[in-house]
Design brief:
333 residues; alpha/beta; TIM Barrel; 12-stranded mixed beta sheet; 10 helices; 16% strand
Length: 333
């Protein structure tokens, strides 16, 4: 049973770990194409520091770790990181969110090292739209990565798609048709008000209701019972066991069942993606006046304090909601 329980009775079992703030794409809703304010390398957690934090988190009841970025596959020792997490006593379930560009060569080594599940981001099936959205002509690399992940045995293989007004909002049915044909699980995610050059606008939001309505023109969608702590509302398609997910982060907040804590690439822990506060673990790990046991004890206290301070909700549905002060790439999606 988890030891990380907040003042609202929510147990925290899921740790999202950002491995780097860097990304090989420049998706327009995530960061400007000319963004260059990367964290200096010395600010990022070392692999040993990452493993120490994850070990402490697992000892306090964390049961699943999801590796994110930026783009986690840009971390040169990513296979080693996966293997070391998998070797932790009472090793957590291990998953990853990636843009898929490097999966063609890394999928099998990652599975061999202990990776269990993967989510791949893909917002369009059209090459020209992909170039416009990401400022990179690499959609074929994503398709190759998906094929490699399937061949390596990663299942269920999930695809994350963000629909944008006047960009790709007309692709919801095409994306689902493709996913079903390829044996993939598709999840639509509402665009969130993240730091991407101030382009987010509530009036342009493609909502969960709109996505559901558009899909219902072609498919009969039946709600899946027992959502648990999953951010996605899932629906059976045409009475089959195939499902599609819709994550309504803005219009349908799911904070009441949230079980997540986040570790940023530079060693800060946050109790919410949209938290305006962080607790520094990197400084603790690099404090020469503390021995290893004292560092672990301090990290454990920090996790408990961070969870204890968690609010009942993130306020994202408040029209006056303020965007986070840090880019999503540094926090982890």
């Amino acid at each position: 049973m988890t030891k990380l329980i907040d003042s609202f009775g929510r147990g925290h079992r899921d740790l999202r770990v950002s491995l780097t703030d860097r990304c090989s794409l420049r998706c327009t809703y995530c960061m400007p194409h000319d963004f260059a304010a990367w964290l200096p390398n010395e600010s990022l957690l070392t692999t040993d520091e990452l493993i120490t934090i994850i070990e402490v988190a697992v000892s306090q009841g964390i049961e699943e770790v999801r590796l994110t970025g930026g783009e986690p596959l840009l971390r040169p020792d990513i296979v080693e990181i996966v293997g070391r997490i998998n070797s932790i006593t009472n090793a957590p379930k291990l998953s990853m969110t990636t843009n898929g560009l490097a999966l063609a060569k890394l999928a099998k080594p990652l599975v061999d090292a202990g990776l269990e599940r993967i989510n791949i981001s893909l917002d369009t099936l059209d090459r020209e739209r992909f170039k416009k959205l990401t400022y990179r002509d690499r959609i074929n690399d994503v398709f190759a990565g998906i094929a490699a992940a399937r061949e390596a045995g990663l299942a269920p293989l999930k695809i994350n798609s963000v629909l944008l007004k006047d960009v790709n909002e007309d692709e919801s049915i095409a994306l689902l048709e493709w996913a079903l044909a390829e044996g993939l699980q598709l999840r639509f995610i509402e665009q969130m008000p993240l730091d991407a050059g101030g382009i987010w606008s509530r009036k342009d939001l493609i909502t969960a209701d709109q996505i559901f309505a558009d899909l219902s023109e072609r498919y009969t969608l039946t709600p899946v019972d027992d959502r648990g702590s999953s951010p996605a509302e899932e629906f059976y398609i045409n009475g089959t066991k195939d499902v599609v997910g819709i994550i309504g982060s803005v219009s349908r907040p799911f904070c009441g069942a949230c079980d997540r804590v986040r570790l940023t690439s530079d060693g800060q822990i946050r109790n919410c993606l949209f938290s305006m506060g962080e607790t520094d673990l990197r400084g603790t790990l690099r404090n020469p006046d503390l021995n290893d046991e004292q560092k672990r004890e301090a990290i454990s206290r920090a996790f408990h304090q961070t969870v204890a301070e968690k609010l009942p909700g993130h306020g994202i549905n408040d029209p006056g909601f303020i965007q986070p002060v840090r880019p999503m790439s540094a926090i982890g999606g």
